[in-house]
Amino acid sequence: MDREQSPSMEDYLEAISVLARGRKVVRVTQISNMLGVKKPSVTSALKKLREAKLIEHEKYGYVELTEEGQRIADDVWQRHEVLRHFLVEILGIDQERAAEDACKMEHAVSPVTAERLSKFVDFVLSRPQGEPEWLKSFKHYSEHGNFPAECKTKCERER
Amino acid sequence: MDREQSPSMEDYLEAISVLARGRKVVRVTQISNMLGVKKPSVTSALKKLREAKLIEHEKYGYVELTEEGQRIADDVWQRHEVLRHFLVEILGIDQERAAEDACKMEHAVSPVTAERLSKFVDFVLSRPQGEPEWLKSFKHYSEHGNFPAECKTKCERER
DNA sequence: CAATACTGTTCACGCAGATTAACAGTGTTA
DNA sequence: TAACACTGTTAATCTGCGTGAACAGTATTG
Question: What residue ranges define each of the domains in chain A, with the CATH number in brackets?
């Protein structure tokens, strides 16, 4: 069995998993809306995923992930979240763009890199003192083009 | 004119640019080897790029980037390098995997994110004191699973 | 239970990008 | 210059993933 899924198939698995979280039942139209593709595309993707034993789906019925399908979906989702978190919390990218970028990057990072990045984010943010000074300083720099110390009076004037 | 290039076309442009650096002349076979595709794939890619005015190439001749083609190639290459640098210098990913990941991620990051990441890497590494302590500490942690402080005697014993 | 509205599938097709096999052009060298 | 080795192109074909149009199944509701 070939466990490696294409970016497209990963997206389908991820979408199914996310949709399954809220409501208990997942339908073709929902997937179609979430991914911005037409329904025939969904139908044929589901056929592939069913043949790969990653979902269960009988004609005109609901869609469910198999255990293996869920595993892959969780994996993709985790990569997505690590990336998004990094982009927002550390680089200071705005929410919307971060989510977009994460959607594309999630298919490109190797497991090792995702794991390391996750550790990095934890390391930087989950410490006793909270967000370290240098990071605050970086965010200020990358948003305003200068360092906090260099503009104290200016900053105070702006308030 | 549509300036947005597909990942595949970006790869061709990047490869041509890199090859052009060493020798002065770029040939189909070189591109084919560098990208791991067969020669007919290169020929048809070159046709597309020629039509998009991103390269100059006459039948059986050498390949050259136009100004616009060079601009795009440089852009892709820069994203590649920023990512690779980040992966190696900050996350501590090994050279080979970092290069691989960068090759895939370079097509997924938005310009804004690439720019911000570049600033981040500079911010962290290009300071008077050199690599900050916390980063050394992170690398030690992510490679050995514990903190330098926690194992001083152990570390000393190992020397 | 019929009419209606919605959901899902099938089919024919398009496009991007890759491949193999066969052919064409180029250049080196005996 | 003729033979040979190499480089590059063409043509036919494949796969993945998407589409619109037409059709089939399901469910709601008067």
Answer: 7-72 (1.10.10.10), 131-159 (no CATH)
